[in-house]
Amino acid sequence: PDNDEVIDETTDQGKAKMELRKKNKEAFTSLALSVDDNTSIGAVEAAITDKYKTGSTKQAWDNLLEIYQPKTMANKVQLLHEFTNNRLKDANTNPDAWLDELENLWKRLKNAGINKTDEELIMHVLNNLPMEYDTVVEILENKIDNPNANLTLKDLCERLQAKYQR
Question: What Rg, from alpha-carbon coordinates, does the chain have?
């Protein structure tokens, strides 16, 4: 709720709106404290308006995304290139860190308007593992081909982590 909205705090709906207003203020303060360059500070400060005197967290976040995750073709090409060429370089590297990086890129691609499916992400992972994972990949590929089995990202992560810990 914006600052101009009169809220009746005696009702459940009013209490919920006051809680939302409080959460927005806390989140906005955290966001404002987390930025340290002039561009980011400006983007966050631009979300302080007459309507939202303590700042709109959503607007500040949208401003930051517009700056740092533009939806330009050049940005999409760069993200897609980074995703496509991202591989687990060796079997001594923890696959969880690599998978986290891939999922982050995957989300950034979605934010830029390039929608990758879970299946595409799974196929990318299976095709970009070092040869020490060949046995695990073969098992997982068989699971993919089994119509009664459903290989999820969670399953994939667990299998790769189990192999890494051996």
Answer: 22
